[in-house]
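Bug #77: duplicate submission created two jobs. Keeping one. Sequence:
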Amino acid sequence: MKNEIAVIGLRGFPNVQGGVEKHCEALYRRMDGFRFNVYRRKPYLVSGGEESYDNITFTDLPSSTISGVEAMGHTFMAALHLIVRRPRLVHVHNIGPGLVLPLLKLFGLRTVMTYHSANYEHKKWSRLGRLLLRSGEWLSLRFADRVIFVNSAQREKVGGAVMEKTRYIPNGVVHHTPSEDTDFITSLGLTPGKYILGVGRLTPEKGFEYLVEAVNRLEGNHTLVIAGGSDNNDDYYQKLRKLDSRHRVIFTGNLQGEQLRQLYSHAGLFVLSSVNEGFPLVLLEAMDYGLPILATDIPGARMAKLDEADYFPAADTDGLVKALERRLDENGPARKTYDLSAYDWDRIGQLTSEVYNEILGPSSDK
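Kept job's structure:
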């Protein structure tokens, strides 16, 4: 019988917005040597959006949608469930949910934690929230049996004996063939190759305010599409709408499947405006579609190793305006080819399996 790996710290999948959610779905469905039980938060599950996976089952528990309460409340409830269920291994995602690692350790459960992002750097958190996240980071690094970093620069900040139990395994990208259909973008009033695209949840760490302001300051008639939904709070979305003084921005809400595929396939330029990221999956997705890219100059975006001219200063509207003017004036190729060989999910699954076997033992019955 295959070893059961419990997964906590995410909202769930399929069809749930978020980089961690995409990461988990892409990773676990490829690791058929293990059996996964993913703990999901009921408020985020889409009716009729279920998908069957040969090696993945779900445990759906109630959850608040209040920022700062949601993740910890659900993760603590899942931890109590796991203490009774006793899987062979628990895989915790991110430092906030990492607060439960001492409890899991106390009851003898073996654990892996994936460090996606230094969440305490996000603007949305209060002083207490940042303190709890830093505590989660400290506890994760000390109580997890292994810690996986998706960002090698973040891993390098870890010192001493803790480094020995850390591993760098990057995010991956699912390859998509560009769509030739245009019905969805036409319904938005868009012309192929004539719009700028940003993708991500509408939260302050994504830096969309700088992108909206910059596009509104450009000469000419440029359209920006932002594909992503608000994160339990419409305040940031309303702020973005007010900044769109020239009505150049189309907010599509959260998109999946063919609609998002069409937006990627026919964009003229992709912009990552985040002020904080672990290793942004949307950047890898834009590279997979061969889009020209401008990315904020932060360590997470630097992981993609774009050309120097593709980066602009973080949280700097003036710098972004200059970068956009320069890029939009160029007459280079409409598409680029990027080397994405390091971001293959099958390879990432193998590396993750090796981490599991370091804890469970390579001869364990999978």
